[in-house]
Amino acid sequence: MLNLEATPRPVLWRNYDFLRLWSGETVAQIGAQITQLALPLLVLGVSGASASEVGLVSGMQLLPALCVTPLAGLLIDMWDRRWILLGSNLGRALALTMVPVLYLTDALSIPALCVIAFVVGSCTAVFEVAYIAYLPVLVPQDDLVEANGKLQASYSVSQIGGPGLGGLLTKALGAWFAILANVVSYLAAFVLLFLIRHRAPTTGAESTADRPRLSDIFTSFGLLWRHRILRVLTFQAGWFNFCEQAIMTLFLVYAVKELHIDAGGVGIILALGALGSLLGAMAAKRLGEHMGFSSTLVTAMGVASCAPLLLSLTGGSGWYDYVLSVLAFGIYGFGLTIYNVHVVAFRQSVIPLTVIGRATAAYRMLTYGPFPLGAFVGGVLGERLGLWNSILASAVFSVVGWLFFALIGSRFIHAAGQTEQTS
């Protein structure tokens, strides 16, 4: 189990390679948050697309979690993870450059945006597996919770500044220009990661016969299944992510079309709501120390799962809708960030470094795979049932998943944790 000692360890602030990784991830996340807001608005603005088309483009960016991530894990365990991180950032920058090019030449279309979204999503899928596998090489195990807390704090800061900046750029100069800002952020992240000095072996295998093989992709799923805690966490994350993406896809359309909130207003809502994520990142380690691993996960996931129900109370007018939306995203972000900090650190602690790339890829395929399905289903439900009804239904399904996790899954986590502590 994780060592959650409360003793301060300032060593991370002297770990310059970690600081470069942290800085590069922060810059890239700010840019990614800009695109997350600007891309759906670009679809709505340029083509007058429907909710299902917005869901289709969003889903294409998330689809690589199913078809690219497993192969990425294999490559990450075979090759230099630093170079994989560099290539991923460069690939994302080049793909997104096509958006302003196509827009300025009047060639932008839904199929073109789908292709660009898929390429960007593929590079992101590779990057996110690689940096999780790379972090335990740069950071001692006792510092993993703190390091992941800092990375989650950066993600929260990007959620605060990114959507607001994206909304302002979109409102002032257009969504295509906001996406261009994301290109700059990926190039800046490339430079910061290039400056990392640490050189780690790509795999612990010393002979060619021991190197990862294509068939090892499937054995990684077996590793997740055999480990009781990882199995429970995988099921819960997949269910939650499906509901989350459906809600987010629906809310962006709902806010613009029914609440009559412009791009700047949506950005402000997401930015203020992200303050909850920042608070969660700051509180994660201390809550884990006081509540214990199992209780922390159940409580944090419950907060995140129930918060979107507040969106069902919107539909009034003016400031009322703004306040409810900010509260919904703030409370949701607070719980989810605490949950993620401890789950990621736990996986990095129990999975051997020689297979962490493949195991992380398998986990992300099973938990991120529902993202595109959630985006697509959310868009279809929005057209069939109405946007408000679909948001409520998705939020209720999220709560149902948490109830199963709290009543059944937490027992497995607690029991397995007791076994590991006494073995």
From TrEMBL:
Q: Which CDD domains match?
A: MFS_MefA_like
Q: Any keyword Transmembrane helix?
A: yes
Q: Cite the entry's keywords alphabetically.
A: Cell membrane, Membrane, Transmembrane, Transmembrane helix
- Its chief place of residence is membrane
Name where it's found.
Answer: Cell membrane
Transmembrane regions: 82-105, 112-134, 173-196, 232-255, 261-281, 293-313, 319-341, 361-381, 387-408
> What residue stretches are annotated with the Major facilitator superfamily (MFS) profile domain?
1-413
Q: Which SUPFAM superfamilies match?
A: MFS general substrate transporter
Membrane topology category? Multi-pass membrane protein
What protein does this entry describe? MFS transporter
Q: What is the lineage of its organism?
A: Bacteria, Bacillati, Actinomycetota, Actinomycetes, Kitasatosporales
